[in-house]
Prior knowledge:
binds nicotinamide-adenine-dinucleotide, Rossmann fold, 48% helix, 2 domains, EC 1.1.1.31, NADP binding, six-stranded parallel beta sheet, globular
Amino acid sequence: MAKIAFIGLGNMGGGMAANLAKAGHEVLAFDLSEEAMAKARDKGCTPASDAASAVKGAEAVVTMLPAGKHVAAVYAESVIPHADKSAILIDCSTIDVATARDVEAKAAEAGLTMVDAPVSGGIAAADAGTLTFMVGGSEDGFGRAQPILDKMGKAVIHAGGPGAGQAAKICNNMLLGATMVATCEAFALAEKLGLDLQTFYDISSKASGQSWSMTSYCPVPGVGPETPADRDYEGGFAAALMLKDLKLAMEAADNNEAYTPMGAHAEELYSRFVDRGGAGKDFSAIIKMLDDSWKA
Ligand code: NAD
């Protein structure tokens, strides 16, 4: 079993680090939050006094941090200067493609192997060890990261070279944001046209309008499988995080001259929803904004 440094023990990282410890790895854990550190200790991780001491001597380093600026700073200050040359570095945070490529290049200059491995699946999947990882990096890096990621997920897919994991993640989530808005609009219109919403679901879920947003994450309470809509949109995937991913997608589109008008519109709608107090609600709650009272 390996000695693994884990930095960033928040909503996602806490469960992921616990699963590595449960699998028998020695997990040296660090977070700026005392509370997160205490929870990790209770779940079998060994608290480290700072990120650099967790990294020293570790065979693998896993990071799960909020955004690109945190990843760039932690790798520059604590990971790259202190990691063993034989260690595999795995960043699971969702960050912009440009920063992911830049940090991986800096690690490579220092003779270190790094992969970007963002996840699909929320806090429940992180706790249950059923995340999907999309991995960017060399074949060698992927091969070394895979056995570690396997302990935290149900699928580990090699997306391509450095930054490809982040690219796959933001393209997927741009699609998710746009299909959720379209699904919400379709249900709102169906209601105004006098359709019974369960009946509309039964039809559309078997017709060409079907999507994951409809059949796995239906935004209408009491329709389809149990979803956050049935819990007043609590839990699930916060609208603020959907907005974060849409902003990353729009940034990447701008930097690469891609025309993404549906993605841009989804970003604008989620931005409006978050500004109006929806940040902490599941992203399917945007259906509420389609009420007349919410119109701009
Ligand atoms: P979070 O805010 O709960 O956790 C981030 C943790 O990083 C916090 O505990 C914070 O204290 C810690 N941290 C920040 N700077 C640090 C530093 N310099 N050193 C050590 N620790 C530091 O966020 P989260 O929900 O766990 O998300 C983490 C990443 O996963 C994000 O990039 C997010 O976009 C992505 N993600 C989240 C979800 C989700 O459902 N929450 C789903 C998929 C992907």
